[in-house]
Amino acid sequence: MSPYVVNTVVTPLPYYYGTNVYYVGDMVYVNSEPYVRADVYYTQAVELAARGVPQAPIHITVNVDVPTAVTAPTPAVQQQDEWMPMGTFAVLEDPEATTTSVIVQLATNKSGHIAGNVINMQTDEITPVYGAIDPETQRVAMRIEGSEEIVECGLWNLTQDTLTVLLHVDGETTEERTFVRLSDPDEEELAP
Q: How far apart are CA 8 and CA 25, in angstroms?
């Protein structure tokens, strides 16, 4: 995926929160080296997510089986861009959970913008999500429309079937969530 967004083949930079990206006091460490203060790290995530705010409306669709009652529009994104699906993921608060009612669909364009939907299967609500990819750090930050919370992960991690994301509840509180890739029903039909 990095050649699509970064326009060159780069060494993947995985983000494993709690392992190679972690907080000690008011510092964030990356690969055991001090990176930046926690407040600066949060501000970087907020600014990166803000880069993905759309300029002109268009509808993109990433397929997922959702109840037919869900008819909310897909997010508005820049019209001239070609979008590549990144995947559809179940969102788990507990990585050991086997069910969820929240699904996220994500796509990216060559400009490094992220767009998608957060789908609440219990309430049939669809909420747009916007964000961006930093090509240098391969860090991805997204914000759900109407929320102050920021979700971040690594670009490489989004190519995996299971990944941990960091949820910035606010400038002082972070939590981890697990994304589990949902397979495309059409792909399952093609499998031997």
A: 36
- What are the beta bridge partners of residue 103? 90, 119
Residue 163, both tokens: 């990944």
Give the sign of the dihedral formed by CA 24, CA 164, CA 96, CA 106. positive
Q: Which pLDDT tens digit goes with each residue over 104-123?
A: 999 999 889 999 999 999 99
Phi first, then psi, for residue 187 (nearest 5°) are: -65, -40
Identify the H or E element spanning 162.
Answer: strand 162-168
Phi and psi at residue 20, to the nearest 5°: -105, -5
Residue 112 in tokens: 């490094």
Could you tell me whether strands 125-134 and 83-92 are parallel, antiparallel, or unpaired per DSSP bridges? Answer: unpaired
Q: pLDDT tens digits for 6-42?
A: 555 568 889 999 999 999 999 999 999 999 999 999 9
